[in-house]
Design brief:
single chain; Beta-Lactamase; seven-stranded antiparallel sheet; 17 helices
């Protein structure tokens, strides 16, 4: 009973914490982590319904993670499963039932679902006990599935999940689904803003901004670890950065099509107009009662084209209003004068732009892209961030695979 009371208290505290997380990806990762902690699960996955299928969004495994070098994250397979009664997660999504299996390898043939052991063979990790819970909104709509795996006792021995575990994770999942619904609405609003920019500039696709945002979060985490930033601050900044980085080029909605869609090199006059997208975007978030999100989004929009050596733009914007002095800004910001958020997005935006195919260019070969990033270290980019960028390349490639472009 004592444990149950502690679990219930933890759920109540988590309700408030989850409601403070605004970004969908950050929230999903946190939901899975907290569900696992609640019932002592060694591993787990969280699925979201996308295009009438269940798409795995995050997977966590303490046993495998413990064998990785410090700071390295678990790389997991990305896949989708049909929403039907054949698989365990598909059955939960299709029926809304809670499935508690003491040993997945002893699932009887009479069960409507079967366990696919091929994932165990690929990962080298043996699943045994499993608890699968639907993520159900207040209206009853199922938006995903939480799957927690291998409950462990105090000695690390794998045990079945209990009825109390079912109760607590189900209650938690209901509250988490409501927070997720709000985060999905926030993501949808941001993507609508991106689609406005996409109508004007073919470079600004939803996949592009999601990749830039994902890369930026990974790069920030690596930088924060090196600078001993507290875990609480890291978690708060990850959430804000994930959304703010998506809007780095939102100011392009105010630039004319004649310039945005010009296939040839800009004239000096045209380039001067193009530079204005930085402060025009930042101006959208400049308010007398700015939130942390507004402040970070403003900094990123304004400074992600500044260069480490001071040769970037829009330059030092002074005075009461940017519009008044935008035609003749001061010298460019340099070094650590550029906010860390702008320095991070400067690297990730260029990396994705060079790596991606666009209507006016083919994607660069990966070796050429990485050579260019390295070459720009100390001139365009913060040298420390470039070194960290190469250290976290496996995670950047993982983000890329999650948000790959759909072929025309």
């Amino acid at each position: 009973m004592k444990t149950s009371k502690l679990q219930l208290k933890h759920i109540i505290e988590l309700d408030c914490e989850l409601n403070r997380v605004k970004d969908q990806d950050i929230l999903l990762e946190r939901i899975l982590l907290e569900a696992r902690k609640m019932v002592g699960a060694d591993a787990g996955s969280i699925y979201i319904i996308e295009d009438n299928k269940l798409a795995i969004n995050y997977s966590q495994n303490d046993t495998i993670q413990a064998d990785l070098p410090p700071g390295q994250k678990l790389i997991y397979s990305l896949f989708k499963v049909e929403i039907n009664t054949k698989s365990i997660a598909g059955y939960v999504a299709a029926t809304g039932a809670v499935i508690n299996i003491p040993d997945v390898y002893k699932t009887g043939k009479s069960a409507p679902y079967q366990y696919d052991s091929s994932y165990d063979k690929l990962s080298g990790y043996m699943n045994k006990s499993m608890l699968a819970i639907p993520l159900r909104t207040i209206t009853g709509r199922i938006v995903g599935v939480i799957q927690v795996i291998n409950a462990t006792d105090k000695d690390g021995k794998i045990i079945p999940f209990t009825k109390d575990d079912e109760l607590f994770v189900t209650h938690f999942a209901d509250n988490a689904a409501m927070a997720l619904e709000r985060a999905q609405m926030t993501r949808a609003i941001i993507l609508r803003m991106i689609r406005m920019a996409e109508l004007r500039d073919p470079k600004e696709t939803g996949m592009h901004v999601n990749r830039v945002a994902g890369y930026s979060v990974e790069l920030y985490e690596a930088w924060a670890r090196k600078h001993n930033i507290s875990e609480k601050e890291v978690q708060r900044n990850r959430d804000i950065l994930r959304m703010a980085a998506m809007l780095h080029d939102v100011g392009k909605v105010a630039i004319s099509d004649a310039i945005l869609k010009k296939p040839a090199k800009f004239t000096p006059e045209e380039f001067a107009i193009m530079k204005a997208h930085t402060w025009l975007g930042a101006d959208l978030f400049k308010d007398s009662e700015q939130s942390e999100f507004d402040d970070m989004a403003m900094q990123i929009a304004l400074t992600h084209h500044e260069k480490w050596n001071g040769d970037g733009y829009p330059g030092r914007m002074t005075g009461a209003g940017w519009r008044e002095n935008a035609s003749s800004p001061g010298r460019g910001l340099s070094g650590e004068e550029i906010p860390i958020w702008g320095r991070i997005v400067a690297v990730t935006d260029v990396y994705d732009a060079l790596s991606s195919r666009r209507v006016y260019k083919e994607s660069w070969p990966e070796e050429q892209v990485l050579s260019e990033i390295r070459k720009l270290s100390g001139t365009s980019f913060d040298p420390e961030l470039v070194e960290l960028f190469f250290e976290i390349m496996p995670m950047l490639k993982h983000v890329e695979s999650r948000y790959h472009e759909i072929p025309d």
